[in-house]
Amino acid sequence: MTTAQPTARRMNRVLGGSAWLSVSLPPGVSVKSTEWSFNTGLGRTIVIAEFISGRLEQLDPGDQFGRRLEVPNATTLGIRELKKDDGGLYSARVKLPPATVEDYHFHLAVYELVPAPEIQSQIHPSTLGWCNLTLHCQVPTTAAMDITWGTGDSLQDLARHRVSADGQSLHLALPPGTWNDTYTCSVSNPADRKSTSVAMQSLCLSNTTHATMWTWFLCIGLIVAVAVCFGAWLWRRRRRKAAGRAPMRDCPSEPQYAEIKRRRPPEGDEQILSSPPDSPAQSLLAMTPITSIYAQVQLSTPQLLT
């Protein structure tokens, strides 16, 4: 009589690791022999090992497994130093006395080791004291892997924080008072998982510090710009006032007078004035009309009609 396991047991392992395929039998059951076979996926099945009378007989014609097989007992097969080609369907045919045969199947998948991810942060300008940033989960591999974000030790879905379509980027807008959380990026395949965490407090404090510095720089720049503009306006205003006063200095409003002292001894006209009354010079002086500077000014200035 032959019985078969209803479904194949799935096993996920990593490259270089080990896989142990074990058949579960009731306690006290005696096993006559166990035959292990491997389906290469090319449509044929080969017998790789057989356990008979307490010892292992390796029957691998292609020598794919070499010395990497172990059979510690009648119901267990071990494969060490797993390779990518070791993945596939394994079967165990167990013969029990007196004439019972039971078949068990195992589906082994071999995956690459997951590298440790790296979290990179991108700070965005903050408003009202909020912490706005984007976390990028970088994985140095092109293999298919799942990326999950979570807070603390809980790897929960953070879709409310806007996760990118590929799952690598997490956009956060955190109000003050929520910066004590730790965000974790977890990268996994069915056989391995690696995680990296980052504390928000250090990133958000750095964000607010940069924002404060830029605010101070902006304020100082505005003050300097206002001071320069005011100084330029004041300088132009003083120049205009100085230009308006210049013609008044060139044209005085009142005539200037100079004190003329009589020379001793008299010269020129003074000699004529000091000559005797009956001299020819005095006769010539009497014939010449004498006018003052005020009279000349009045004659040269047009009379205003009243």
From TrEMBL:
Give the residue ranges for region: Disordered. Answer: 244-282
Report whether Signal shows up as a keyword of the record: yes
Read off the InterPro entries from this record.
Answer: CD2/SLAM_rcpt, Ig-like_dom, Ig-like_dom_sf, Ig-like_fold
Q: Which residues are listed as membrane-spanning?
A: 213-235
Polar residues: bias regions: 272-282
Residue ranges annotated for the Ig-like domain, each copy included: 117-197
**A cellular-component GO term for this protein:** membrane
Give the principal location in a single coarse category.
membrane
Q: Which domain of life is it from?
A: Eukaryota
Please give the PANTHER family that the UniProt record associates with this protein. Answer: IG-LIKE DOMAIN-CONTAINING PROTEIN-RELATED, SIGNALING LYMPHOCYTIC ACTIVATION MOLECULE
Which protein, by its recorded name, is this?
A: SLAM family member 9-like isoform X3
Q: Which organism is it from?
A: Alligator sinensis
User: Gene of origin?
Assistant: LOC102381173
